[in-house]
Amino acid sequence: MPRVDRPGGGAGHTAQGEVRATCWTAAQDHPVPDDVARLLATGPEWFGQPDSNAEYIEAAQTKETWTVRDDGGSVVGVTLVDRHFPHVAEIHLTVVDRAAHGSGAGTAMLAAIEADAVRRGVRLLEVKTLGPSHPDSGYARTRHFYEKWGFLPLEETDLWGEATPCLIMVKPLAPAPSC
Ligand SMILES: CC(C)(COP(=O)(O)OP(=O)(O)OC[C@H]1O[C@@H](n2cnc3c(N)ncnc32)[C@H](O)[C@@H]1OP(=O)(O)O)[C@@H](O)C(=O)NCCC(=O)NCCS
Hints:
The chain is 27% helix and 34% strand.
C-alpha cells in the first residue's frame, strides 16, 4: 500500500487526551466504518446531522479508505475516496479526531492520496464542502485547509438544498514525469 511519511518525530496521546504529533503516516487501509462513526462523533459542529452521519458510516463500509493511525494502531483520521472517472479522484469524506485537529493528520492524508493519484495518472482532485455563503466558522476553517493544499473554488451550487450551499473545489494535478 502507498505510504507518505511527513518529516518529524512520532505521535502519541498527552495526559489531557490531546494527540500530539509532528509526523503522521497516511496509507490506504481496509474499510473502518466503526472508526468513522467514532471520529464523526468527536466533531458534532461539522457532523451534527444523524442522517448524513449514517450515510457516511454506510459509505465507509465499501469506499476506498485512507487512514492515519497513531503509534498504537488506533485510527486518528479517515478519508474516503470516490473515483467517478479515471482522471479524477473525489474526497468523499475526510475527518480527523477532534483531539488531533491541527496536527497534520488531514494534510498527511491529502498528501498520500495526491501522490497516489499522480502515480495513477489522475489529473484532478475534487472535494465538495459547505460553501462560503453559509456563515459557519468551522467550515470556513475547512475551506482554508483545502485552499492551503491547493484546491480552488470552482462553483457554489444548491446540490444539497438552498440551506446548505455546496462548494465544489478542484485541484489540478501535473502529470507524473515520464522517463
Ligand atoms: C479539516 C480537517 C480534515 C483538517 O485536518 P487537520 O489534521 O486538522 O489539519 P492539518 O493540521 O493537516 O492542517 C492545518 C491547517 O488546516 C486548518 N484547519 C482547518 N480546520 C481545522 C481545525 N478544525 N482545526 C485545526 N486546524 C484546522 C488550519 O488552520 C491549518 O492551516 P494554517 O496553518 O494556515 O492555520 C480536520 O480539521 C477535520 O476533521 N475537521 C472537521 C471535519 C471537516 O471539516 N471535514 C471536511 C468536511 S468537507
